[in-house]
Every structure is written in C-alpha cells, then in structure tokens.
Amino acid sequence: MKRIISLILSAVLLVGCCSMFSISVFAEVPTFTTSDACMALLKEYEGFCKYPIWDYGQWTVGYGTRCPDDKLAEYKKNGIPVEEAEELFRSFLRAFEKELNERVIQKNNLTLTQNQFDALLSFSYNCGTGWTYDSTSAMYVAVVSGATGTEMIRSFALWCSAGGEVLTYLLQRRLSEANMYLNGEYNRKPPENYCYVLYNANGGTTKPKTQGYDATAEAAPYPTPTYSGYTFDGWYTDRVGGEKVTALTAAHHGTTLYAHWV
To answer: Does the N terminus or the C terminus of the chain have fewer Cβ atoms within 10 A?
Structure first.
C-alpha cells in the first residue's frame, strides 16, 4: 500500500512539474509596451495638430490620432488641449500594443526585442493593424520567419501609399522603421545605405510599385510587370532607352525604373 501511495505522489509531483514547466515556457513570451524612445520618435513623425484635419478618409487630431466623433465639433472650434492629445495618443498606443502582442507575438510564440516591437508599433500606428490578420502578407511573413537585411527592408517599404499615391516621405519613414527593427536605432533619418526605387510599368501593370533595399548587400529589381500582348524585357533607367538595371546600388536610390517591352 505504501508503495502504491508513493507512486501516486510521484505521478502528482511529475504532473505538477510538467505544468510548471509549461507555464514557464509560455511566460517566456513577453508582453511589450511602447518604449519612451519610440513614443518620442512617433511624435516627431506625426507632429502636433491642434485642430482636426481630414487625413485620407478620417479626421485626425493631436499626434496623428483619429479624432473621436463626439469631440470633432469641439476640437474644430477650440482645438485639442495638449493633455487630452497625450491621453488620446497613449490610448491608441495601448490598442496597437494589444493587437501586436496577441495577434503576432503570442500567437506565433515569437521572441522579439524591444526595438523590433517598437518598429512594428510605429509601422502599425501609421499603416494600421490589418496586416496582423493576414498571415500571407509580406510583413507578417517577414516577421514570423525572422527575415533580416534587404528582405525585411523590402517588406517595410511596400507600405508607402496614401490615397492611391506613393509618397516618398512615407518611404523614408518605412526605411527609418526598418532601421529601428534591424539595428535598434531610433532615428527619423534612415542610414545612407537604406535605399528605395520606384517602378513605372510603362503601359503595363506592376505590383509592387516600390522596393526598399540595402545598397551594401546584393539586391535586384523585384517585381515582374505584365502587359497583355508584350514580353517583359527588364527594368531600365529611362522610359525609352537608358541602362538596363539588374542590380540595385546606391546610385539608383530615389529613382524611377521603367519597364521595357518587346
């Protein structure tokens, strides 16, 4: 009987140890909040707007936050007090933090650093969290797969359009966020080797229309455009003629490459 009791107690202890082990493993996935450095940089990106402005489909106020409907008339008349703008800013951050922690980090059991979380927070603050619901999106795949270098830079730089138009200042912001993610640098100006090019399908269609890359690493033009009845002949520096580009360098930064057809 004593032997049976001992076996039962041993089994109970073993189960308890396994439970504790499972809990400790789960606890290794931290819950992140936005760092002070990231908040400061976000405010630099967004600037402060006392009165609501129409921003591509919604009214924003303060530090780029959506203006509450029940405050729109008041803020249009008197502006938003700095204290209320700060609270609105932090409430928006909390919502984005929750999405990133639950839908990306914990769901995929990821081990990220604070600067990587901050970069994704800054990205989501500007672009929204729709990407966290699409496991096939370039950003989601890059984060979950642990992408680095040019691959990660390219994923950030895909998100640079507003109102259907590619905006170069958004491209600069994406490169800055990629720098934060990859190098832990909280700087509004990206490194000189973090570059981008624009693509013009020259009668055809192309997706994506932008590409970010590290000029110190190997990078080639990424998209393959289509044009019914024609065969793609490559990307060139001019609409007609020009140099065929097969490798992206620092010299191509900020330029538009044109598709040629035969």
So the answer is: N
